[in-house]
Amino acid sequence: MPTNVLSRRRLLLDTGAGFGWLALSSLLQAGTQPHRKPRVKRVVQVFCAGGMSHLDTFDYKPLLGERDGKPYEMPTFFGQAGNLFASPWAFAQRGQSGLWVSGLLPHLARVADKLTVIRTMVAKSANHMPAIAQANTGFILTGFPSMGAWVTYALGSESENLPAFVVLPDPRGVPWGGSVLWSNGFLPAAHQGTAFRASGDPVPDLADPKDTRPEARRDALAWLRSMNERYAAEHPGESSLEARVRSYEMAASMQLTVPGIADLTRESAATQRLYGLDNKDTAPMARNCLLARRLLESGVRFVQVYCGGSGKNWDAHGDLAGNHATMAIEYDQPVAALLTDLESRGMLDDTLVMGVTEFGRTPVAQGAGKRGRDHHPDCFTCWFAGGGVRPGIAYGVSDEVGRRPLENPVTVHDYHATALHLLGLDHERLTYYHNGIQRRLTDVHGHVVEGVLSA
Amino acid sequence: MPRPAAITVAVLAFAHAAAAQSGAEVVAKRCTGCHNGRSPAGGLDLSTRPSALRGGSRGPAVKPGDAAASPLVARVMAGEMPPQAPLPGAEREALRQWVDAGAVFNGAMERGRAGLDWWSLQPLRETPPPAGAGSPVDRFVQAALRSNGLRPAVRANARALIRRLYFDLTGLPPSPAEIQAFAQDPSPAAWRRLVEQLLASPHYGERWARHWLDAVRFAESEGFERDWLRDHAWPYRDYVVRAFNNDMSYLRFAREQIAGDVLGPVSRDSIAATGFLVAGPTDAVGLTSAVAAERDLIKQDMMEELVGTVSQTFLGLTVNCARCHDHKFDPVTQQDYYRFRAVFDGVRQPYKDVDLKAHGRPLETPAERSARLARREPLEKEIAALEEELGRMDRAGRDFGRVVKPRAQWTFDTDARDDFGAMHLELAGEAQLTEGRLRNQGKETVTLASKPLESSIREKTLEVWVTPRVAWKSGAAVFRIRNREGFRGAATDGIQLSGKEKQWQNSSTAGFRNWDVGGPADDAAPGQPVQVAITYASDGVIRVYRNGVPYGKPFVPDPALASAQLQTYAAGDAVVELAVTPEFDIDEARLYDSPLGAAQVEGSYRAGVRSARPAAAGAELRARLERLRAELKELPLPELVFAAETFQPEPARLLKRGDVTQPAAVVSPGGLSCLPGAELGLDAQAQEGERRARLAQWIAHERNPLFARVMANRVWHHHFGAGLVENPNDFGYNGGKPSHPELLDWLAAGFIRSGWSVKWLHRAIVLSDTYQQSSALQEEANASDANNRWLWRWAPRRLDAESVRDAMLAVSGSLNPNLGGPSFRAFEVKFTGSYQNYTPVDREDPAFNRRTVYRMNVNSGGHPMLESLDCPVPAVKTPKRAATTTALQTLSLMNNHLVARLARNFAARVEREAGTDAEARITRAFELALGRVPTAAEREASVALAARHGLEQLCWGLFNTSEFLYAD
User: Fold this and answer.
1) Does residue A283 lie in a domain region?
2) pLDDT tens per residue across span B195-252
3) Where are the alpha helices (DSSP H) in B363-522?
């Protein structure tokens, strides 16, 4: 068996490190040492579902303005390619770095010096669900573990009171595919993403039933503890039974901790304003971004925040100006605030922020005389911020209309490999045996993008 | 009892397999099965050049450039190696030349891999069980224990045994009475009776079907973006349950799933069996992409998924790994992959456009089909003739003098059909024809939808005549046109009366084409018909008319906004909808494919409303037509099933590097070259059904050593929690070698001899002493074999998700034992665009108290409690489940609605059965949940808990005990 975290974990479990430790480790699915020295400890991924246009945000193409309305031949997803279509937003160079950011994202423009923009992303599918699946799991088919599951599988949890992998969907609805996108796939169930809900209990089944009195639950738990302790004692060697006893303590502390973390009124008014909680347009994303920071602070390993679901999202087929303006207002301020806030708390150095979308949008309008853009997986933009990456740079060069990478193409696999690298994980060694293959997040592809790493 | 079949364990001649091309391949395919890995045979590792040159315990094996001095060549030439399977002359010669040429190893061999001599590809070799006491299974197991310095455990106690067997064979707990009876007589004879009783129980099939459904990734929704429900997938699940219950021959079971629709005798059951082929995920959106490469990629990905499912399920081989290159670990070539795939090229999932109701194919045999068509055809012919005749008459006078002929027209005189085209409306609910009008007799608004547009439409006019029955009270979207598909832009435009101002206006997608019309409030008196028309011109201008004159001001779109421009309504997708409220009748509706001018709208108004005129000619013909239609409607339609539909595919081509843009040579359908008889005698044009029929007979065959071995191992796996081969879906190099190879072959051969009886396998296993061992820990054995690979005990196990839920149902007295039929839906469905969204629900309802195997298994709507107990997403092939312990699982067991509800039912049951005595209640609760009476201390603590907080708290606690959740 190749050296991988699984076999090392088995070794640790088999050689034994004390009963309580075993119980705890099987509960937390505690990971092992990373493959190399990590640059970051945790990840927050902000996912623009629907396909954020690279041509209207980070990848400035003056030629589109010069040739607006001129014919240009290319195949598109819906097969209705129109003419070249200039961005409705003006671009400018920002900050010390001079990174190009359009007027669509004024808040992110102000923190441009913290961003590492990759302008030559390449995905496999021009179709939302497979492309989102690839961005999450590396595969366009469903059934594979998502990146959050891989990371928590490898590195375990740092919190006894919180799930290691938390997903914060857009309150208007989950993206196409739903929970499949944060599934553990074939990894143990402990690594599946826990989707917090926008209303009611943040975690399913968190609160005691309303008609159960606290003292009744307390006494029943005491009764249960003695039953389960006795059963565990009668079955020496079954670490899962001891883990079950501990799991009730963990569940109880989760019941205490989660509502507190989800309670954003504990944040100062200034912080709430920074994220945009005081504005009805920015409030939903602001809540999730602020909650993400609170979760990271409390030891959650991997947080995913969705901007857009299957109903409302960045999928600007008809009216790019209207769609992206609405979505950008929701996205821009809260995400910029997240970066600022992480930095001011000294957390940006060991946190990786991933700005992700499943694909970009076409340089041509969708349909003659139209003002929208179609799906475009052949070249688009994602970004990093945080520890271990070179801030304020744009990596990769796309062609004059942003249709294809000219220099340094970065596949989704490369992007994943790089993120794992920053976490101290070798994407070729982070494997799990399933139905005949040592599976990886990066399938059989992927190279670490050295050009974005800081020295 | 299955018929005993005379079988011969086939001798597999290596000549069947593709001859190795060069000496390097000879070594890779013929030698590295043993001479490889961490402890190679004779210490000789032939997988890499350095290790081959270093040699084994007998010294160097290869002297590059000198075959005559190389022991490897000498022993192969002498026929000593490989043992009992001497190589053909050509391969010996290739080996000799290769060593003479310097023994250059190619890259593929620089790592461990399986060759054609890999153990699982060899014929079954039946060795008699070693001497000793006990059943054959015991004698094999005990020999292995002895040679590892271990000994078996004693027999488990009666309560543990009966609980173990019940959960194992039926997935349900034994009742207290059954436990007591067995405890009084736990003799081997009583054990045998118990085994027979449970194998005969219908719950046995439910339990073992679940294992099978896991392995074959059975899903009742399509996955991906839309994740639409598959309403008619359940007949496959019932087929599997029945097959296990009836102990159907596994040979037939496998053949029917691959080719039951073509390989006789074809029955409804054997058609339902092919649900296996299509149970995987479908990317319906990707398959309709405008980019051909995208469509092809999705199609090839789905084919890889199918190839993987067939080959892993029945052969334990991961043929899917050879799509882009030869298999990295097993002797499966890329050519093999494409030949195997070509067998299934003509299989597709049953789809008809986007009509959800047709999400299935008819469940009928060819004979039933011809009988059904014979009854329908005369009627259909006469109906068609009458329709044509009436159409001729209609077309003569149906435009009622209107200057512009409508694209579609509904007059509601005798039906809700389109007078000119095929956009017929379907009457529904309380909206019915009355006096030549559409009237809603009920309280709620009813929306009727038409058949889809036959050709796309852009410029258009919508016209509707309505007669208020009371003065206007509420608003309504009366008549609109709508694209149903989200990904094409779910556009809509139509005529609506605003609720507040009683003003006619356009209603459109997200209000993109709404404006302040500014027309006067409608004051039509009840009984007085009103004509409303809206015209949509190519420049995006929209105009409203009422009773023939312009109404308010028109809409002029902002040229910068695409969503404000004229929309396209797509052929095959867009429909018109009429909303009928109880407040008004709809007299007529028309759709024109041009924007009518003011004069034309006025002309139509002057032509009047048809229901005011006498009925047209042809009333007699129309009446006959209605009778015939009614008669046709009475004829029974076949049930639907979500099973394979087929077509004749193009000849298959190998794809270089798996790339859809690089097709290479044509390949003909066939089996795998590493197994005998792989040449199926099919050419590239072979008929679709013939391909699968022959492959089914090749896979499910006693000559195929993998087929019987893989199933014997699956059954073993589920009885012991671990297989003799660790990975039930992988008998290749990565899956490793069996712990007890002779036992596996003995089981496989006996399985064949029994007539492929799965119940024979169960008996062979559960009647053994090995299975009946105690689960107690032996310290020394645990130190050397913690994973219990040598079976020194029966390892305790947490129940799987379904058994936990089913046991709670059974213990609480809530279980609804009905077998089969449509699945119950423990979720609510919400549509967002074309996407389905599932929210779990639970309520006290007999349907919700059915066994978990009958739960509708959707991809994106898992149940939080079942998921936390390792119930997999259905699209994932899951030959073995994990058993994790997590805090989220504990939260679910503590607080899930289902647990609370069933704890209440459990308490009510105990009160019913045990009367009012506090101690009797506690005893009864323990007996039901744990199968035993409480100890004195437990009784005291439990009485106190129940007295203080009610019996329900105790019942909740019992559901949360490890003892309830584990079998030992």
Assistant:
1) yes
2) 999 999 999 999 999 999 999 999 999 888 778 889 899 999 999 999 999 999 999 9
3) 366-397
A-B contacts (CB, under 8 Å): 270
Fold of B400-615: Jelly Rolls (2.60.120)
Residue A306: give the domain boundaries: 36-199+263-452
Cβ contacts of A192 on chain B, cutoff 8 Å = 867
- Under 8 Å CB-to-CB from B365, ≥6 apart: which residues? B266, B267, B268, B271
Q: Does B265 sit behind a cis peptide bond, omega within 30 degrees of 0 on the bond before it?
A: yes
DSSP string for residues in B902-920? HHHHHHHHHHHHHTT-HHH
Distance, CA of A245 to CA of A20 (rounded, Å): 11
Q: Which residues contact A405 (CB under 8 A, 6 or more apart)?
A: A119, A120, A122, A379, A396, A397, A398, A399
Longest dimension (CA), chain B: 112
Number of compact structural domains in chain A = 1
Ranges of chain A whose pLDDT falls below 50:
1-22
| Cβ proximity of A405 and A398 under 8 Å | yes
- Residue contact A251–B891, C-beta within 8 A: yes
What ipTM did this prediction achieve?
Answer: 0.75
Looking at the complex, does the CB of residue A129 fall below 8 Å from at least one CB of chain B?
A: yes
Residue B890 to residue B718: CA distance in whole angstroms: 25
At residue B169, the 3 state secondary structure works out as: helix
Q: Least CB-CB distance to A437: which of B564, B734, B868?
A: B734
Residue A11 placed within a domain: no
| Residue among B224, B290, B876 whose CB faces A185 most closely | B876
* 3-state class percentages of chain B: helix first, strand second, coil last, to nearest 5: 40, 10, 45
Print burial letters for B486-510: b (CB count within 10 Å at least 16), e (below 16).
bbbbbbbbbbbbbeebbbbbbbbbe
Phi, psi of B900 (to 5 degrees): -65, -45
Both tokens of B128, joined, read: 């008699």
How high is the pLDDT of residue B98? 80
CA-based nearest distance B582→chain A, Å = 32
The answer as to whether A319 is a domain residue is yes
Q: List residues bridging with A383 in a β-sheet.
A: A117, A355
Residue B135: CB atoms within 10 Å: 17
Q: Do A178 and B860 make contact, defined as CB atoms within 8 angstroms?
A: yes
**Given an 8 Å threshold on Cβ–Cβ distance, is B894 in contact with A309?**
no
Query: What's the pTM value of the predicted model, to 2 decimals?
Result: 0.74
Distance CA B360, CA B644 (A): 9
Q: Does A178 touch chain B (CB under 8 A)?
A: yes
Where do the structural domains in chain B lie, given as residue ranges?
Answer: 18-115, 231-351+645-699, 377-398+618-637, 400-615
| Residues B158, B183 contacting (CB under 8 angstroms) | yes
Residues of A in contact with B963 (CB under 8 A): 227, 231
Task: Report which of A314, A338, A310, A336 is spatially closest to residue A324, judged by C-alpha positions.
Answer: A314
- Which of A210, A251, A211 minimizes the C-alpha distance to B950? A211
| CB-CB contact of A446 with A417 (8 Å) | yes
User: Cβ B884–A372 below 8 Å, yes or no?
Assistant: no
Q: Are A203 and A163 in contact (CB under 8 A)?
A: yes
Closest CB to A220 among B730, B867, B949: B949
Contact A215 B889 (CB under 8 A): no
pLDDT tens figures, A145-160: 999 999 999 998 888 7
A220 → closest Cβ in B290, B294, B945: B945
Phi, psi torsion values for B428, nearest 5 degrees: -150, 155
The answer to whether position A355 is within a domain reads yes
CATH of the domain at A430: 3.40.720.10
User: Within the 248-277 window of chain A, which residues sit less than 8 Å (CB to CB) from chain B?
Assistant: 248, 250-251, 254-255
Strand partners, A366: A81
